[in-house]
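Reminder: ligand-aware prediction takes two inputs, not one.
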Amino acid sequence: MNKSLLRQESSHYFIEDVKLTDIAQKFGTPAYVYSKKHILDQINFLQNALSDIDHLICFAVKANSNLSILKLFKECGCGFDIVSGGELQRVLTVDSLNSKIVFSGVGKSVSEIEMALNNNILAFNVESEEELFRINDISQRLSKIAKVSIRVNPNVDAKTHPYISTGLKDNKFGIDETSAIKLYKKAAKLDHIKITGIDCHIGSQLTDLSPFEDAFIKLASLIDELESNQIAVEHIDIGGGIGISYNNEDISPIDFYVQMIKKYLLKYNKKIILEPGRFLIGKAGLMLTNVEYIKKSEHKNFVLVDAAMNDLMRPSLYNAFHEVINLSNTQDSNDIFDIVGPICETGDFLAKDRNIKANQGDILAIMDAGAYGFSMSSNYNSRPRVPEIIVDKDEFYLIRERENFSDLIAHEEKFLK
Ligand code: LLP
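Here is what comes back for the chain with LLP:
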């Protein structure tokens, strides 16, 4: 069992001091639930581990972009890693004067760049030559100076799921090392660009953190080469990617990661920017779902629940494992079930081949869903998106309400003829 988030007392499960079934009763299911304490503990843990390094943690907004969650990160002194105009506006909604935003992503549009420049973000993580020139042009038009890092693609294997590996030369992200140096030289000549950093993000959900070592070595040699060309950076952005354990995987200790930062990057005396998402919030959240039916056949058994792939896409998309706990019945079963939703696709599953005893009306917790859970959810099959709830000691409250049918048709109804 995931011991860090849930506490079991007799036959009840608690997050902090709140019984999970009370939340299901009050707000219904499916629903996402987060622990405020768990999030704060993760931030503190990382900040402490980095305490003798000049650093800035920029939370990767894509992992969980709920405004109340972003506000929590802001209050802890974090900056933000954004990848769209929408994410920028979310951050500005909770922190209008935020100057700690780094903007990543391969396809920044003109309007997104304008918005970012007008809000004086900390850095654009530039991913192509064309993007650099586009930023320079816009920044000239707006009479601004854009602060940029070049995102280097170090061609290292992050040993993670291919869909979330980003640092290989075949991936669409970043710029290879040789071209990066050339681009820095071009950037140095542009009037409306100020080079402030170097950036790298090799992938997500790294359980073995050793691929960072290769990336840091390559970053270090690039910084040396830049310095020999009189190009100085103020910060080194090492991206996100620290993995969490979903299925008892061994995770390299954070100390190992910190030691690598110290070994390869500290000598440059620059600020180290990190862009963690999953590590800070992945294990702080779960999704509650109700058992609708038990369907058994000779070949296969199913627990049919009210949550589906539109609510939590990770199992369908990456075959990702999420532990499932029956909060209403803790007994073991001799039967093996797939836990599936009501969507009309065979790929609509939340878990496969689980030993679980469940009855109609039981409440299940789909664990470790705090990152890339709600933020990747959709309205597929005209399913309203589910509420998000935060637990704070013995209290719990909504931070996003359940959508309703009016929300689903809000942008269509007026076009009915
Ligand atoms: N920085 C950049 C530039 C990124 O692209 C990402 C994630 C992060 C930081 C944060 O990575 P993290 O620390 O969370 O690993 N939907 C997938 C994950 C996609 C990650 C995309 N980029 C999943 O559910 O596993």
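The longest strand covers residues 285-296. The longest helix spans residues 211-228. We will return to this case in the review session.
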